[in-house]
Design brief:
Subcellular location: Cytoplasm
Organism: Crocosphaera subtropica (strain ATCC 51142 / BH68)
Family: Belongs to the pyrroline-5-carboxylate reductase family.
Mean pLDDT: 95
CATH superfamily of the largest domain: NAD(P)-binding Rossmann-like Domain
Shape: elongated
Distance between the termini: 42 Å
Strand content: 5-15%
Order of helices and strands: EHEHEEHEHEEHEHHHHHH
Pfam families: F420_oxidored, P5CR_dimer
Number of domains: 2
Bound molecules: NADP nicotinamide-adenine-dinucleotide phosphate
Number of strands: 8
Low-confidence stretches: none
Largest sheet: 8 strands, mixed
Helix content: 40-55%
GO molecular function: pyrroline-5-carboxylate reductase activity
CATH topology of the largest domain: Rossmann fold
Structural class: alpha/beta
CATH architecture of the largest domain: 3-Layer(aba) Sandwich
Length: 268
């Protein structure tokens, strides 16, 4: 079978994406080709998933549908210098997950190719990612549909204009760390209230997961959910009042805004 999807860089994100693509049967193993410099990593990917591997980035350009760039952003110039683009017979869709790497840089590196900039997040590794995609100038609806189907295999997908990518980075990109902090703090609060650590952490994780699932499945507004669980003079409203006193919501808002501004600065 011909190679439909090439991947340059066989690291953490590449593995997360390809495992889900295989599980969803969107791509059979023999239609995937990963280029990776480390031989032990190549062997691992080939043996674990039955996919094609190479140490030659150029061969990934034979992909008929898409080429996923999954190297660290600082490696991009090295990768593009290893590619001879004028020899290619087809123009697969370039999907870049390189954080902070703008479309104009990618389109300059891949002239005449359709390019989509993609921002996934860490929960993609368990199929619960949130991915934003921003199309470049050569992108057609069929390319957007292809990108959406690939990243829907690792979670949810939204399309945004590139100007919103820094906001995406501040929220869903950095968000897993903010939520992890919240879970740790909930667990600490439980321990401070006498719960064993293991039980406190389990309660904290399931409470965050369950609350998110409840809101996602019912469409409940966050404020409505909060109202539903705060009875007059009860325990929850006492806790909510303390969070307000300590500036919890303001701290979270400022965290997202600060991450957004940092993403803007890093992109300059
Ligand atoms: N992890 C996340 O949650 C996340 C979220 C959003 C976006 N991203 C983006 O995803 C990209 C990949 O991140 P990652 O966490 O998967 O990194 P990673 O695990 O370090 O993967 C990068 C892979 O590329 C390989 N590589 C290095 N030089 C190469 C070359 N010249 N040609 C081909 N492959 C080469 C590396 O091999 P060696 O190990 O041998 O160097 C490594 O296996 C980054 O640009 C990051 O900004 C990651």
């Amino acid at each position: 079978m011909s190679i439909r999807l090439g991947i340059i860089g066989g690291g953490v994100m590449a593995e997360a994406i390809l495992t889900r693509l295989l599980a969803s049967q969107l791509y059979p193993a023999n239609s995937l080709l990963v280029s990776e410099p480390q031989s032990s990593r190549r062997d691992f990917l080939a043996e674990t998933y039955g996919i094609n591997v190479t140490d030659n980035n150029q061969t990934t350009l034979q992909a008929t549908e898409a080429l996923l760039l999954a190297v660290k952003p600082q490696i991009l110039d090295k990768v593009t210098s290893q590619l001879t683009l004028d020899a290619v017979g087809n123009y697969p869709l370039i999907l870049s997950i390189l954080a902070g790497t703008p479309l104009n840089r990618l389109e300059t590196a891949f002239p005449n190719f359709p390019v989509i900039r993609v921002m996934p997040n860490t929960p993609a590794t368990v199929g619960e990612g949130m991915t934003a995609i921003a199309p470049g100038t050569q992108v057609k609806p069929s390319h957007l549909a292809l990108a959406t189907s690939i990243f829907e295999a690792v979670g949810e997908v939204v399309e945004v204009t590139e100007s919103l990518m820094d906001g995406v980075t501040g929220l869903s990109g950095s968000g897993p760390a903010f939520v992890a902090l919240m879970i740790e703090a909930l667990s600490d609060g439980g321990v401070a209230s006498g719960l064993p650590r293991a039980i406190a952490t389990k309660l904290a994780i399931q409470t965050v997961l369950g609350t998110a699932t409840l809101m996602k499945e019912t469409g409940l507004h966050p404020g409505q959910l909060k109202d539903n669980v705060t009875s007059p003079g009860g325990t929850t409203i006492a806790g909510v009042a303390k969070l307000e006193e300590k500036g919890f919501r303001s701290a979270v808002i400022e965290a997202v805004k600060t991450a957004y501004r940092r993403s803007q600065d890093l992109g300059k």
